[in-house]
Amino acid sequence: MINADNNVRLFGDYLEHFDGTRYSRITEQPRLMQIDTSSKGVIDTLVIKSVLMESYDDSTKKMIATDSVAMARGRCQYGVMGRYFTQKQFIELRLEPVVWYDDNQASGDSITLFMSHNKLQHAVIRGRTFALSLSDSVYPARYNQLTGRKIEMFFQDDKLHEMAVDQNAISLYYLYDGKDPNGANKTSGDEITIDVPRRKNRPDPHRERHRGNVFIPKTCVEKGNQVQSRRFDLRTDRPTLKSIFPTLSNL
């Protein structure tokens, strides 16, 4: 199925369409592809797969993908065991979803992604939240970490600009002496805001309203003591364009 208005293509092995209610569903091997062009003229393709895919061409104009949903677009990928994709410039992910953007990974009970002109602008993660980012590409085992009841991610010019944690916020970020790795800081507070623009490939956390700040010495970091969050979960199932659409280059 091809929707020429928004350049969306739906693929699958079995489709049912109900013209009276303008409702369609694909129940076998559903895939969605939307080919778009970024502001810089680069082809930007969104692909989605799930167990069930439903289309509502009524006043709601929404697509719902249910069960083992995986999405990928440029530098941003999403994975969720539940559902919900809508074309009204926001995406709702439910049932313990995970979002990846560049070297950042975030998860929670639910995630809402707000778009503008098909570009990610704002992400809100609620519930049992956890976010991590690689602190330095030279040291792949050192991940900065955030937990709280709500994490917000703000994007500018297609780049992650700022992260804010609210309620029971805890941040862990690694320290360096020049290029050499040092210990880590662990901070708890009501609110923690982190600027993501990087100097020497490292984020600069600050603007913290905190209750306590603990310095973890380098020796403890090297032994792994007091470092990882109890919610630490480095996922290896990040979806890609190829994993969702192996024949993408042939289309």
Summarize the structure.
This protein has 251 residues and is mainly beta. It has helices at 218-223, 241-244, and strands spanning 2-3, 8-11, 14-18, 23-28, 31-37, 43-49, 52-56, 62-66, 69-73, 76-80, 83-86, 90-94, 98-101, 104-107, 110-116, 119-134, 143-156, 159-177, 180-199, 202-216.
Describe the protein in words:
The chain has a domain at 96-229: lipopolysaccharide transport protein A fold, CATH 2.60.450. A hairpin with a 5-residue loop joins strand 5 and strand 6 (43-49). The chain has a 15-stranded antiparallel β-sheet that branches. It has a 5-stranded antiparallel β-sheet with strand order 3-4-7-8-11, with no helix packed on it. By secondary structure, it is mainly beta. The protein starts with a strand and ends in a 7-residue tail after the last helix. The chain is elongated, with a radius of gyration of 20 Å. It has helices at 218-223, 241-244, and strands spanning 2-3, 8-11, 14-18, 23-28, 31-37, 43-49, 52-56, 62-66, 69-73, 76-80, 83-86, 90-94, 98-101, 104-107, 110-116, 119-134, 143-156, 159-177, 180-199, 202-216.
Poorly predicted residue ranges: none
Coarse shape? elongated
| Assembly state (oligomeric) | single chain
CATH architectural name of the domain at 96-229: Sandwich
Number of helices: 2
Sheet bearing the most strands, described? 15 strands, antiparallel
As for the CATH topology of the domain at 96-229, it is lipopolysaccharide transport protein A fold
Helix content: under 10%
SSE series: EEEEEEEEEEEEEEEEEEEEHH
Strand content: over 45%
- Radius of gyration over all CA atoms, rounded: 20 Å
Mean pLDDT: 80
Task: Determine the structural class based on helices, strands and strand pairing.
Answer: mainly beta
CATH class of the domain at 96-229: Mainly Beta
Could you give the count of β-strands? 20
What distance separates the N and C termini? 14 Å
